[in-house]
Amino acid sequence: MPALHELQFRNSFARLPETFFARVRPTPMPAPYLVAGSRAACELIGLDPAELQQEATHACFIGDRLLPGMEPVAALYAGHQFGHYVPQLGDGRAILLGEVAHPDSGHWELQLKGAGLTPFSRDGDGRAVLRSSIREFLCSEAMAGLGIPTTRALCLLGSDEEVYRERIETGAVLVRMAPSFIRFGSFEVFFYRDRHAELRQLADYVIAHDYPELAELEHPYLALLEEVIRRTARLVAQWQLVGFAHGVLNTDNMSMLGLTLDYGPYGFLDRYDPGFVCNHSDHHGRYAFERQPSIGLWNLSCLAQAMLPLLDQENGEAAAEMAQQALRLYEPELVQTWSQGMRAKLGLQAARDSDKDLVAGLLDCMHRQQADYTLTFRHLAQLRQDEPGGDAPVRDLFTDRAAFDAWARDYRMRLAAEQSSDADRARRMRAVNPRYVLRNYLAQQAIERAGNRDFSEVERLLRVMSAPYEEHPQDDDLAALPPDWAEQISVSCSS
Ligand code: AMP
Ligand code: MG
């Protein structure tokens, strides 16, 4: 496997005119040390994982050393934050080095998050703290393990450099990877500045770089918008299926590739509560779990608005009509992905009209009985059709067992109607219902240990969360219900 300096870097984003970004020099953190690295991410770019241990690699990833082809830039973007347009954001603490192409996995941009000030830092310090960087590192790889589109995390470096948040913390640099980090807000900034030529250049770049198959179509810009709409719909449906709340669904955190992007105060559901708000700074619950589907559409309409000049330059009404039409793709795509996904989670094979009620009945029961989202589905795999006693593990998750029994009667009838075999169904269900998710309290435990330079828990979580559908008997404490203190953990935008 090649060493880091043997990889071929280039920065195609930096070939765009300088209105799209600022050239920057990273500000290296002193005395970096490796907190964690992802073998799976190394594989994507064909990098020897042993390289992550090398000081020369650390020097590159804190921005102290550039390899040929690396051109550090910070991208300009804007965005709607909590519903309000903010005319200039941009990479305030992320620095794009360049991209590596791999024959099997395509191209991957490498970005340093926390590598120092950029012209877009506003009041920030350009740094990321170890705490939130561990959360992003782990969740990026956990989402990939779950099979949900996401930016990736190659490695995480820490330093003793002090960083000031609500209290004094230490800094870290997360090396993120994605085919592209372009956001909805990357388009919005040029729309609101009336810079239509740049808007077009950006769309052309995104199509050439990440959607080449659209270039030949009659209307590539409309096709791009439609594809982003469909991908976003599927992404949000997958979040809902696995019980993931992003926490800060501003349009600057929405990927043009339909990836989960910018992990901050995210959270996985413990007990099922559709109104779950993971971000303690989100006082109105704008980004509550159950609102994610409608927020996804709201964000897409911001993107569509920004793309109007590309849809029809002369005729504004025609452009608006095209955008409206495109946005109508969202709901059916989301509903279809979610319904199919729910059917799979319940181990159902054929689709029936009554499935909707069956699913709603279970969710309602879980909500009332405060049942754990992840474990309910996982344990449901063990339910036997002929033997009501066999449902103990799942039944025990419900405070009112009779309520669960009532639902389980309908479920058994439904299974019998399609002549479902228990063993087969259990196997199918385990392949789609994770046993392990990155619950807040688990990340918190790893963060606390990492504060004492013990990274074993980060490593353990990475290993287990990368294969969350498999059983890990040695690490099965990670599948436990959260302890009482988990409720007290507070995560905010501060990172
Ligand atoms: P976020 O909500 O973390 O995605 O960040 C929103 C905006 O604030 C982005 O433009 C970030 O680059 C910027 N930002 C957040 N934290 C910092 C920081 N510590 N230093 C500089 N910019 C920051
Ligand atoms: Mg962001």
Can you put this structure into words, describing what you see?
The protein folds into three domains: 4-180, no CATH class; 185-338, no CATH class; 346-432, no CATH class. Helix content is 41%, strand content 13%. It has helices spanning 39-45, 55-61, 130-146, 184-192, 196-210, 220-242, 292-311, 316-327, 330-345, 355-369, 373-380, 392-395, 401-417, 422-432, 440-450, 456-465, and strands at residues 9-10, 21-23, 33-37, 73-75, 79-81, 84-86, 94-102, 106-113, 128-129, 152-164, 168-178, 244-245, 267-268. Strands 1, 3, 7, 8, 9, 10 and 11 form a seven-stranded antiparallel sheet that branches. Strands 2-4 form a two-stranded antiparallel ribbon. Strands 5-6 form a two-stranded antiparallel sheet. Strand 5 (79-81) and strand 6 form a beta hairpin. The longest helix is centred in the middle third of the chain and has 23 residues, at 220-242. The mean pLDDT is 97. The site of magnesium ion has 3 residues, from loops.
